[in-house]
Every structure is written in structure tokens, then in C-alpha cells.
Amino acid sequence: MITGYNTDVEYDGTVYHVQTEDKGVEHPIILSLVYVDGEILASKRSPYDDLIAGVFDEGILTQRLQRQHKLICAAVRAGRIEELKRMGERGSPPRSLSKEAQPDRKSPQPAAPADRVEVKRADEVRPAPGAVEEDLPLEVTLPEDPELRSGESVTLRVSVTRSESGARAPVPGVSVNLKMLGTAFRPESEISTTDSDGIASFSVLLPKFASGRAALLIRVEAEGEIAELRRIILPD
Hints:
- By secondary structure, the chain is mostly beta strands.
- It is 13% helix and 38% strand.
- It has helices at 49-52, 58-77, 81-87; strands at 5-11, 14-22, 29-36, 39-47, 139-141, 153-164, 167-170, 175-182, 188-193, 199-205, 214-222, 225-232.
- The strands form 3 sheets. It has a 4-stranded antiparallel sheet.
- The longest helix is centred in the first third of the chain and has 20 residues, at 58-77.
């Protein structure tokens, strides 16, 4: 089981506590809750039984957990509180919590009994009208997505976009941090800025190594949102 995330987000003078946790493979649900003063205002449940139908990949689950948490935080930060409440209307009604049941920022607490969780196949899940999924946060992609191999010189075009009115729009003028990490060499990093088309360009010499593991990590942060992309660097 992956423990989860807890974040305080302030909007219009109110501090909202966002909690996202993994309910475990016995009840494969990613559960997000939005609290104010111990009261649950909104909840979101995302089944991941598609992951446990085959070979379970904890890395993919972690990505989904992080993505859902960021989506909820971004929605709160944008003032979409009523939308979040409507999204949770299919779940349990808001309830007040005693001091003993307040959300623990170090160890997320279960918010609902497992037998009340509805599990569906992934292909049965459809977002409710106006749900948060329609407005994804920042996204980082490599349009050409070249193979990365030790010792080679490559030019990378990094695209940064954000969802607007159901379509992806470029995000200009944001800083893009590119890091090369590995077990056989010291970390290296470069920074570039996206142009008017939301593209940042890098010309890099990939570290040379014959054994061990290495990866390229691209990270963007803008207006409180974070997007990351990781690509494996193959050994020589």
C-alpha cells in the first residue's frame, strides 16, 4: 500500500486540507478527500483494479495517486469548490469529525469503511459532467521522443501544455529543468524556458556509462502546478 499525500491549499481566506491515499490492493481505490475544519466537503474515488488484473506496477499506481492529488489541489486553488462538491455527491455525505478523527498529515486515515467503496472496471469509469479530469494540470511531453543512449549528443524539444476549454494549449515563458541522473555518474542539470509555442529546447551530451541505471528527468513548475517526465537512458 502507498501511504498518500496531504496538502493545505488556501483559497479566498479559507484553508482546505486535501488528502489522497491508496486503499490497498484488497480494495483497489485511490481516494481523495477535501476537508475544512474537520468536515469532508468533497471526495473522489478512482478504481485501479485494472492494474491488479495483470502484473501489478506500483510505479504506475504512484503516478496515478500523484496525478489525482495534484488535480484536486489545482481545482481547490482555482476556486472550483462547488464543482468538487458535486463530484462527490455519489459518495458519502459530508460529516463532521471529532478531534480524534481529524486528518493526520503524517499518516492518512481511512475516510469511509471499505464495504462502502464502489469498485468498477476501468472501462466502466466515466467522469461526471464538469469533473476535474476535464481540466488537466501542466503536462510535459517530448514530441519526437527519441531513444536516449549513453554518450550520444541529442537535441530535445520539450513541450509544455495546459488544458483549456477541452483542448491542450501551449504554456509560454515557464522554466524547464532537465536533470540527468544515474548510478554511475554525478547528476547533471540544465535549464531552459518555453517559447511562445510552449517549447523549450536542449542540446545535451548524455553521460557515458556502461553499467548501472540512468534516467532523464524533466520538471516544470508554474502557478503552483508541477509536471514531470522521466525517460530511461540506455547504457553504452
